[in-house]
Amino acid sequence: NAGVMQNPRHLVRRRGQEARLRCSPMKGHSHVYWYRQLPEEGLKFMVYLQKENIIDESGMPKERFSAEFPKEGPSILRIQQVVRGDSAAYFCASSQKAGGLAVNIQYFGAGTRLSVL
Amino acid sequence: AQKVTQAQTEISVVEKEDVTLDCVYETRDTTYYLFWYKQPPSGELVFLIRRNSFDEQNEISGRYSWNFQKSTSSFNFTITASQVVDSAVYFCALLTGANSKLTFGKGITLSVRP
Fold first, then answer.
1. CA distance B84 to B31
2. Which residues of chain B lie closer than 8 angstroms to A45, CB-CB?
3. Most exposed: A12, A55, B11, B71, by fewest CB within 10 Å?
4. Cα angle at A54 between A51 and A59, to 5 degrees?
5. Cα(B63)–Cα(B16) distance, integer angstroms
6. pLDDT of B34-71, one tens digit each?
7. Which residues of A touch B29 (CB under 8 A)?
8. pLDDT tens digits for A44-63?
9. Which residues contact B61 (CB under 8 A, 6 or more apart)?
10. C-beta atoms of B102 and A109 within 8 A
11. Is residue A102 very low, low, confident or very high in pLDDT (cuts 50, 70, 90)?
């Protein structure tokens, strides 16, 4: 049973380019979360999605960042016109069911390290 | 608002020593979950344990043990007889019943020397 798959593992972009980060959740998981880890900091929540729906995007910057989790295919975190401050590790997690008493464990992928030159 | 504090930033021990990683949390919710994750040098995040707010029993898994105390809002993690492979960054995290996002502490870098 494959874990959460993220690609690419490393991504280099020049300022102003677009970055697309992909995440395939674990089999049977329909909830996806994106977190960002800046140097010397813990992980910060960005967005929580279910299939075709954004449930909570309270941690995502209002501009340049977007996320989707289509009916078919992986979840995508898209960063437009990247700036040096976007350089970070971006982690995706998935779970079977979320919220309430039936909350389940979030399993993480290996992350995508984005470097903006 | 939820908050997780890991006051220790770096800990260095010699192999076979016991080490305790501290975690203090804040939440107004009565239903919540606490987690520990391990991030080895390779960078991935590995789930270690989940504990819900209604279960204060301590847990032991091999060399790992966890001490959950609601009275002090703490969820500490002890590694017994540490090994070099335990070297990693350890994160404590909180999830409340009101939402599904994890709130992480800043992590503790543990170095185990041979």
1. 36
2. 101-103
3. B71
4. 135
5. 11
6. 999 999 999 899 999 999 898 888 888 899 999 999 99
7. none
8. 999 999 988 999 999 999 99
9. B49
10. no
11. very low
Q: How far apart are CA A44 and CA A91, in angstroms?
A: 10
pLDDT digits (tens, 9 = 90+) for A3-40: 999 999 999 999 999 999 999 999 888 899 999 998 87
- Stretch B101-111: mean pLDDT: 95
CB atoms A42 and B33 under 8 Å? no
Q: Six-digit token pair at B35?
A: 């987690």
Q: Do B101 and A103 touch (CB under 8 A)?
A: no
Q: Are A13 and A115 in contact (CB under 8 A)?
A: yes
Backbone angles phi, psi at B22, to 5 degrees: -95, 150
8 Å CB contact of B47 and A48: no
